[in-house]
TrEMBL record:
Listed GO CC annotations: plasma membrane
Keywords linked to the UniProt accession: Cell inner membrane, Cell membrane, Ion channel, Ion transport, Membrane, Transmembrane, Transmembrane helix, Transport
Protein's UniProt name: Small-conductance mechanosensitive channel
Organism: Hellea balneolensis
Keyword Membrane included in the entry's annotation: yes
């Protein structure tokens, strides 16, 4: 018996039987992949042209469309090739559940990142405080938000913490109120003091005329009277005004003859005489008397 002839007689019908479905499946997969990539690009370009588009979100949604369609194409190709896709679908579903459990934290960050991008509680360039960390938003991705502090330290915060926690956006509004406190002597004329502080603030062109500048006595300390100054300005100027307004206020107070006290402490010493010392003094007086 010729083994080669038997093998050819066995293999050739199988090859003829499965060659057609295999080629059809291959054509479906190649063409489907091409069409899937084209659709994903169209979706990405359409999302990028939308108002307030975000690059990371657009790429993520386009990738989601691409891989979803690619799974459909792969299942269709396998079905044409004669593979039982019903059992495979269950296996794929099981793998999907397993991966979802393993990557649950990352998926939570991605979901939070999508919410942050859609609802925009802050944007790039805003100065925010998230979970006690304060800085300027320099980057937003689907997994994390990056902040840079004033002293150039980078802080990376998970999106799930940013979305699920309290976010303070210090630069959400262009106009902010700046509060400062100045201590003056108890001997100072309060009306003259408040007028001097207000004049120094009004002389700064960065301070708004409206709302009006506000000054009031807010506290009586041990050695000083605290006067609070409230003024409105642009957020971009807020930090500089806080540093630069002190010198004009000091000059205005000096010109008005108003003193700024410094903390001081008076120690009173008392001499307590013991009974032994008193007896000794009494004896000395008695000797002098004799």
């Amino acid at each position: 018996m010729d083994i080669g002839a038997i093998n050819m007689e066995t293999i050739l019908p199988l090859a003829v039987k499965y060659a057609g479905p295999f080629l059809a499946a291959l054509i479906i997969f190649v063409c489907g992949r091409f069409i899937t990539n084209r659709i994903a690009r169209v979706v990405e370009h359409a999302l990028m042209r939308a108002p307030h588009a975000h690059k990371s979100l657009s790429k993520f949604l386009a990738s989601l469309v691409r891989y979803s369609l690619l799974c459909v194409v792969a299942i269709a190709a396998l079905a044409v090739a004669g593979v039982d896709v019903s059992a495979m679908s269950g296996m794929v579903a099981g793998l999907g559940i397993a991966f979802a459990f393993i990557l649950k934290d990352s998926l939570s960050d991605i979901a939070a990142g999508v919410m942050l991008i859609l609802f925009r509680p802050f944007v790039l360039g805003d100065e925010v405080e998230i979970g006690g960390e304060k800085g300027v938003v320099t980057s937003m991705s689907l997994l994390a938000t990056r902040l840079t502090t004033r002293d150039n330290i980078e802080i990376i915060i998970q999106n799930s913490k940013a979305w699920g926690g309290v976010v303070k956006n210090h630069s959400a509004y262009g106009k902010r109120r700046l509060d400062m406190v100045f201590g003056v002597s108890y001997d100072a004329d309060i009306d003259a003091t408040m007028a001097a502080i207000q004049s120094a603030a009004m002389a700064d062109p960065r301070v708004y005329d409206e709302p009006k500048i506000w000054t009031k006595v807010v506290k009586l300390n041990d050695s000083s009277v605290d006067i609070e100054l409230r003024m409105w300005c642009d957020y971009d100027h807020m930090r500089k005004i806080k540093m630069e307004i002190v010198q004009p206020v000091k000059a205005a107070l000096d010109a008005a003859g108003i003193g700024i006290p410094y903390p001081h402490e008076v120690k009173i010493k008392t001499h307590v005489k013991t009974s032994k010392a008193r007896n000794r003094i009494a004896k000395l007086k008695a000797l002098r008397g004799t």
